[in-house]
């Protein structure tokens, strides 16, 4: 019989770090730890990877609908997305582009 077990947020973070799906990226200017999802997450934690991709896609669509994303096409009709300055700031707050982090102020393990 399989036992029902729910992770709390700290347990999930610790688990994903232990399997290499998430890693510490640095510390923001307020001293808060910043984590990032690794490429390995697509294999070791596909549910996390899928949720991450869905969040990024939805967030970019929201920014586009607010006029904060410019789309241009090359000669092969391949689209390039470029965030406006306001879009970049909002995207940082949403966690979909890299924040300004202090990598020199990383804590020791």
How do the helices and strands line up, and which of them pair or pack?
Elements: H1 9-18, E1 22-27, E2 33-37, H2 41-44, H3 46-65, E3 69-73, E4 79-83, H4 85-94
Antiparallel strand pairs: 1-2, 3-4
What are the key terms here?
109 residues; alpha+beta; two-stranded antiparallel ribbon; 4 helices; 19% strand; globular; disordered N terminus
Description:
- With 109 residues, the protein is of the alpha+beta class.
- Helices cover 40% and strands 19% of the residues.
- The protein has four helices and four strands, in the order H-E-E-H-H-E-E-H.
- It has helices spanning 9-18, 41-44, 46-65, 85-94, and strands spanning 22-27, 33-37, 69-73, 79-83.
- Strand 3 (69-73) and strand 4 (79-83) form a beta hairpin.
Considering DSSP H and I runs of 4 or more, what fraction of the residues is helical? 40-55%
Percentage beta strand? 15-25%
Shape: globular
Low-confidence runs: 1-5, 101-109
The largest β sheet comes out as: 2 strands, antiparallel
How many separate structural domains? 1
In N-to-C order, the SSE pattern is: HEEHHEEH
Multimerization status: single chain
What's the gyration radius in Å?
17 Å
The structural class is: alpha+beta
What's the pLDDT, averaged over the residues?
Answer: 84
Give the tally of β-strands: 4
Distance between the termini: 38 Å
Count of DSSP H/I helices: 4
Order of neighbouring strands in the sheet with most strands = 1-2
């Amino acid at each position: 019989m399989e036992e029902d077990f729910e992770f709390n947020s700290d347990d999930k973070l610790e688990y994903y770090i232990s399997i290499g799906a998430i890693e510490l990226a640095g510390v923001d200017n307020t001293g808060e730890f910043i984590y990032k999802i690794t490429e390995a997450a697509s294999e070791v934690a596909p549910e996390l990877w899928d949720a991450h991709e869905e969040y990024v896609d939805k967030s970019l669509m929201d920014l586009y609908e607010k006029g904060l994303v410019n789309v241009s096409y090359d000669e092969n009709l391949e689209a390039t997305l470029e965030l406006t300055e306001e879009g970049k700031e909002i995207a940082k707050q949403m966690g979909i582009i890299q924040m300004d982090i202090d990598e020199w102020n990383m804590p020791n393990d």
